[in-house]
Write a structure and sequence with these properties.
By secondary structure, the chain is an alpha/beta fold. It has a single domain, classed as Metal-dependent hydrolases (TIM Barrel, Alpha-Beta Barrel). It has an 8-stranded parallel beta sheet with strand order 1-2-3-4-5-6-7-8. Helix 9 runs parallel beside helix 10. The termini are close together.
Length: about 325
Amino acid sequence: MELRALATCDLHRHLEGAVRLRTILDLYREAGEPLPEATPEELAPRAQVLRPMESLEEVLEVLRLVQGSFRSYDAIERISREAVEDLAADGVRLAELRFSPAFFFSPGGLDWDLAMERVVAGVGAAAAELDVAVGLIAIFSRDYGIDSGWRTVAFAERHREHLVGFDIAGPELPYPPQTYVELARAVHELGLPLTAHYGESGPPAYVRDAVELLGVRRLAHGVAAAQDPEVVALVRDRGVGLDVCPTSNVRTRAVPSLEEHPALRLLREGLLVTINTDDPGLFGIDLTHELELCRDELGFTDEDLRAVTENALRTSFLPEPTKAAVRARHFGWLDA
C-alpha cells in the first residue's frame, strides 16, 4: 500500500509537541525575545530530539525551549490551527490533540478559559475547512502537583462540551497510579474517558494499576506491559487501547531499540495497538513516517496496518456517529 495516499488516524499527538520550527522562531520574535537561530534548520539541534536520549525526563527538558514560545492568545490559536493543517497534509482524517493547560497556557500567564477559546477556534476552523475530525483531550501534568490536577479537572468540567477525554501525563516514575485514584474518580463522574501516560518509563506494575485502580480506557504508550504476560492478558481482556509511538518510544528509551519494540507482538496477541506520532514537531516526523517504520523495520504487513487503523477508529474517544461518518467518507481502503 502507498501509505501517504491513505486516510489515517492519530490518537496521540500533543499540541505542545507539534509546533513547527518556523512558528517557534516567529513567536519568540513577536514576543520581543528573538532566538539566535534564524532558520528552522539552525534551530533543529536545540528544539528537536533527533536521536535517542538518556531518559524521558531529558526529552521533556528539550520541550522547555518550545514552551517559551507559548506567550500569547494569538500564539495558542496559531499553534492549534497549524496542528490541524499538518494533520491534513499528512492524510490524517481522524485525530485527537491533547494539551496540558498548565504547560501550554502558564508560560504567557494566560487565563486558561480564554486560552481554551483560542484552542477551540484554531482547531475548529481548520478541522471544518480541511475535513479532519478532531477531538481535544485535556492533560493534567503530574509534575505540576496535585493541586494543578484538581484545577485541571475543574477546567475540564467547564469545557466539557469541547473535550473528548482526559489524560494524566508528564514524568512517570515518581508518580505511581495509586496517587490519582480520587482524581480519576472525579474525571469518570464528568463522563470523560480517561487515558494516562503509564508504561512509558515506568514498570508493568504501573500499567496494571492504571487499568485496575484508575479505570483507564487507553494507555499512552503502555509498552512496558509487554514485559509481563499477566499484564498483557489484563490489558487485552479489559479492551484497553495502547497508543504506541515508535520513534518516541526509542528516543525516550521506553524501548531499548527499534528492533526490540513490542508493538507487532502485542498487536498479534490481540491487544488494541494503534500507531501515533506523540510529538511530531519535537521528533521531526509525521504519521506516515511512523507507519512506514512499522512496515519497513518492524515487519507490519498490510493487514497489520489495517488492524491498527481499525483499532484507532474503535478506541478513539470521538463520538460514535462522528467516527462512523469519517469512516464512510475516507476509510474505504480498510475494506478493500
